[in-house]
Amino acid sequence: MRKVIIINDSRLERAVLKDQLTKLGFKVEAADEYNWFSKVSGKDTPSIAIVNYTMQEITGDKIISTINSNFPQVKCYLSSCNELDKNDFKDIQLVNTITTPITLGDLDSILVKVSFCPFCGKELKGNFHFCPFCGQELAI
Length: 140
What we know:
The protein has four helices and five strands; from the N terminus they run βαβαβαββα. By secondary structure, the protein is of the alpha/beta class. It has a five-stranded parallel beta sheet with strand order 2-1-3-4-5, sandwiched between helices. Helix 3 (60-70) links the parallel strand 3 and strand 4. The longest helix is centred in the N-terminal third of the chain and has 13 residues, at 11-23. The protein is globular and about 40 Å long. The two termini are 13 Å apart. The mean pLDDT is 89.
């Protein structure tokens, strides 16, 4: 099962995203800007991180920069209630941005129907039921 971590200082936003991601079949961890590192650095590192941009004492791009440096296999998404342009964040490895609130269908399109394997991170060119690189079953 693919694992996602939500890093957001809003309990409500964490709860809503967690519920949506669980419905899409993800194993979900949620954390605020203070206790996220231990949840990413454990033995079960997530394949995806959804990080809120504006938090009380830090911005999400700084957290993503730390994730990029320490856990390069984690695919990062920056979320915000305001529309963000991925091109404004050239200093970090960012798959995409997410504008919240988001519908379940849109979240599914952004996270599940992506062009990389969520397990090994290799780019997929075409539709596969199993990753041709690592053999893991992909969500259809």
